[in-house]
Every structure is written in structure tokens, then in C-alpha cells.
Design goal:
Distance between the termini: 45 Å
Oligomer: single chain
Number of domains: 3
Number of strands: 11
CATH architecture of the largest domain: 3-Layer(aba) Sandwich
Radius of gyration: 23 Å
Length: about 300
């Protein structure tokens, strides 16, 4: 089995068409077809089956795709590490995180690394769960901090539980609802500023409303900028729904509403056969250390 064969196999799997895969790989379609047939002959299994609109993976093809993606990600990371080692004494660690962790956790991790005099180059990518986990599987980042997936995305990925935080409904400290007992029915007429529909906290609030027959939340502003969101809540009557750690040091108050708080497990995801470097080991050590101090898990 040759690396070139795996690269052409992955191109065919991605594009679902031998012609488009050949164009992407910069070779002729007959050459690509011949390469894949040789790979199938070596493995003794059919990797693709034809359908009216192109090709799709067989069960053995799906299994090979997972392992080939792991290998491609590892090779990409190795090449990136080699380039960084040639160019600089610093070491690169690429970390993906959701917006709330970019505010509540990563600044403390960064400060601790700098205090240790660590020769580490961080590349931080902020995004939503789905996009970060897709970037991890594609080898574009080394680690992803996200809400724990409901089930493993791949047998080749590890999802290590870091901590559990609590997502709450909150308002400005002098909001009328902050001065009294709040019941779920009080939220029926509430106006909200919330993240986009793809954010899991937003989906959880939608479920809270649906379970009580309230319809959908009355959303006045939708944004994925958490600094903007927090400032707007602090100066208006709008409510929001985010991890309670984001409220610290701000003129904001969590509303104690039966059934509204969500205990959210947060995980660190990575390829379990990843190529470790001294820089990645140090970053993970500091990340776990700071997490224990902040969340006590």
C-alpha cells in the first residue's frame, strides 16, 4: 500500500466522483481509476460502489477512510512541526475552542504558559462544535475544546472529559427579574440575545421552551460575538443563556429558574495516535492544571 494510493483514495471519497477527484489530484481519470483498483487488489476488498450520481464508499471503504484520514492528519502535523522547527525555536500548537472557552478558560492558560517562560507558539481557532471537530479530523488543528459529543465521532478520536460547567439564564444585575423569584412561565414573554442556532446552548434553550409549550424564544439579536452579547445584556432588558463563568466580574446576574440550568460536559478531543511534541505536552499539562483550579474537576 502506497501513500499516493491512499491520497487518491481519499480524494475519490471526498468528491464522490472519479472525474472530480482526478481533476483535484491533477491526474487523468483512467490513472486514478487504475490506482484505486490496485489498492483494492492489494487489500482484497471493494472500496467503492457505483450509483447514478457517482461513487460511494463500501463498508471496508468507510473503515479505510477513517484510518487514511488519521494518517493524513498525522503526516500534515508532522510536516507542520518540521517547518516550525526549521524556521524558529518556538513550537506550534494549534488549538480550537468554542467562543465561551475562548473567554473563560484560554486567557488563563495563555498567561500561565507565558509565566512559565514556555517557548510555545499558539494558534487559536474559535468556532462552533461541528466546525472544530471537522477541522480536527482534517488535521487543521491539534486539539479541540468543545461540548462533549453525545457519541464518539470516530474510533480514532479520543474525547477526554475536562470539566462540567453550568449554563444559565442571566440578565443585568438590576433587571426586574433579578430581584424576585422567577418561574419558567416568566420566560414566555422574555426577549433574548442569543448565539446562532448551531450553538448547543441555543438548541438547549429551544428545547426548554418547546418542552413547556412556549413556542420559540423571542430573539431580538443573534450573534456569535460573546463580548458584544455580554455588554448588550448588561445595558438592556434582554436575557441570554450562557455558561455562568462568563458572568464573573460583570454587572450580570444568573436567574434561578427551575429546569433552565444545564450541566454541560466539556471535552478535549484529539487523535489518539497523534504525534506528540514537547510543546503539545506542555500545553496540555497547563490546560489540565488551570482547568482543575478554575472548575475543580
Amino acid at each position: 500500500m502506497e501513500l499516493r494510493q491512499l491520497q487518491h483514495f481519499l480524494a475519490a471519497a471526498e468528491h464522490g466522483s472519479l472525474r472530480r477527484a482526478a481533476d483535484a489530484a491533477g491526474i487523468s481519470q483512467p490513472a486514478l481509476t487504475k490506482c484505486i483498483r490496485r489498492l483494492e487488489a492489494t487489500l482484497g476488498v471493494a472500496l467503492f460502489e457505483r450509483h447514478p450520481r457517482g461513487i460511494r464508499l463500501t463498508a471496508p471503504g468507510e473503515a479505510l477512510s477513517q484510518h487514511a484520514q488519521s494518517l493524513a492528519a498525522e503526516l500534515k502535523l508532522t510536516a507542520e512541526t518540521m517547518r516550525e522547527m526549521r524556521a524558529s525555536a518556538r513550537r506550534l500548537v494549534r488549538l480550537g475552542t468554542g467562543p465561551s472557552m475562548a473567554v473563560a478558560l484560554l486567557p488563563a492558560v495563555t498567561v500561565r504558559l507565558l509565566a512559565k517562560g514556555a517557548e510555545v507558539q499558539l494558534r487559536i481557532r474559535s468556532g462552533l462544535n461541528d466546525s472544530l471537530l471537522a477541522a480536527l479530523q482534517a488535521g487543521e488543528i491539534d486539539f479541540a475544546i468543545t461540548t462533549m459529543p453525545a457519541r464518539p465521532l470516530s474510533g480514532l478520536l479520543t474525547h477526554e472529559r475536562l470539566f462540567t460547567d453550568q449554563v444559565v439564564v442571566f440578565a443585568r444585575s438590576d433587571h426586574p427579574l433579578a430581584a424576585r423569584t422567577v418561574y419558567p412561565r416568566d420566560l414566555r414573554a422574555a426577549r433574548w440575545i442569543l448565539p446562532s442556532r448551531n450553538v448547543l446552548t441555543r438548541a438547549r434553550l429551544d428545547e426548554f421552551y418547546a418542552e413547556r409549550g412556549f413556542g420559540a424564544p423571542d430573539i431580538w439579536i443573534e450573534t456569535d460575538s460573546f463580548p458584544y452579547l455580554l455588554k448588550v445584556v448588561a445595558q438592556t432588558d434582554l436575557l441570554s443563556y450562557l455558561p455562568d463563568r462568563l458572568l464573573a466580574g460583570r454587572p450580570l446576574a444568573a436567574l434561578d429558574i427551575a429546569g433552565a440550568a444545564w450541566k454541560r460536559p466539556v471535552s478535549l478531543s484529539y487523535w489518539h495516535r497523534r504525534t506528540e511534541t514537547p510543546a503539545s505536552r506542555l500545553v496540555l499539562s497547563v490546560l489540565r492544571e488551570v482547568t482543575r483550579e478554575i472548575y475543580g474537576d
